[in-house]
TrEMBL record:
<feature type="domain" description="D-isomer specific 2-hydroxyacid dehydrogenase NAD-binding">
    <location>
        <begin position="111"/>
        <end position="294"/>
    </location>
</feature>
<keyword id="KW-0560">Oxidoreductase</keyword>
<dbReference type="GO" id="GO:0051287">
    <property type="term" value="F:NAD binding"/>
</dbReference>
<keyword id="KW-0520">NAD</keyword>
<dbReference type="Pfam" id="PF02826">
    <property type="entry name" value="2-Hacid_dh_C"/>
</dbReference>
<dbReference type="GO" id="GO:0016491">
    <property type="term" value="F:oxidoreductase activity"/>
</dbReference>
<dbReference type="InterPro" id="IPR006140">
    <property type="entry name" value="D-isomer_DH_NAD-bd"/>
</dbReference>
<protein>
    <submittedName>
        <fullName>Phosphoglycerate dehydrogenase</fullName>
    </submittedName>
</protein>
<dbReference type="InterPro" id="IPR036291">
    <property type="entry name" value="NAD(P)-bd_dom_sf"/>
</dbReference>
Amino acid sequence: MIILLPNTIDLDLANSSNPSIAGATAPNDDTVIVYDAKRPFADEHLAADVLVVWQNTPENLHDAATRLSQLRLVQTLAAGPDAALAAGFRDTVAIASGRSLHDGPVAEHALALILAAVRSLDELLESQREHEWNTAVNTAQVARATSGRYTLDRAQVTIWGFGSIAATLAPVLRMLGATVTGVASTTGIRHGFDVVAASDATELLARTDVLVSVLPASPETTDTFGAALFGALKPGAIFVNVGRGATVDEAALIDALESGQLRSAALDVTKVEPLPAESALWDAPHLILTPHIAGNRPQGAAGLVRANVEALHTGAALTNLVS
């Protein structure tokens, strides 16, 4: 079996001292070849059985879908498989996601964005740049009427998209005093937390202080977070997105920030990335932007690839198979 590994990450499939050279072997004596994830595939790549994907260009993925005719598996290391799905691979090619590889890093970044928004760090950093000692935020944090807005203690945090990342993030938020509720396709208990169906979330949104999105991109989730949903939130709520930019109507988000319906927001993802210089998001009030860095550090990626390669050899079920 020929396994193609991208040059965008070091993966030790053989547990050898030099795993990233062309011709290295995996435990089943499979041939491992490292390829350039930004360029077209070379002739020696065309007989590959497994393609591992990480930070590939769309052009590279399209080339793979067009020319790698013997592929059996595309293993993306991204939590969301949208880029691999969009490349146009044949129906006979299995696609597996990197779900769970980013749980810790994304949860950490989500927590950082939540706390930055709750504690108004965007305002305080702006004051620092202006050499101003900001007393307004301090006054608001101690005032009886507004002090509750600046802490997670007794806050209602709603996580929309309650998968493995949410399962990592939610206990930390609970430890800080928040009540955490999930939103997913169906109502129930997940990972010890109450989850409501998206179709029944209106009452929950009305009392939500912080809304966190971990939704993947799909035709069904496009612009989920738009004017109607922002309008259903508790006035002065905070919105944080560490899922995918396609899920947010950005014009509606800006309107909600400008009107004060949203007190602040923090985005790690946008519809177009990199975010164009002319985007209105740059100048939206009380908006924190980070350049899609919540993940980018897949944990345990080599183990996942090894497990799915072994599954191909034995006929076992693939981990994180995308339907």
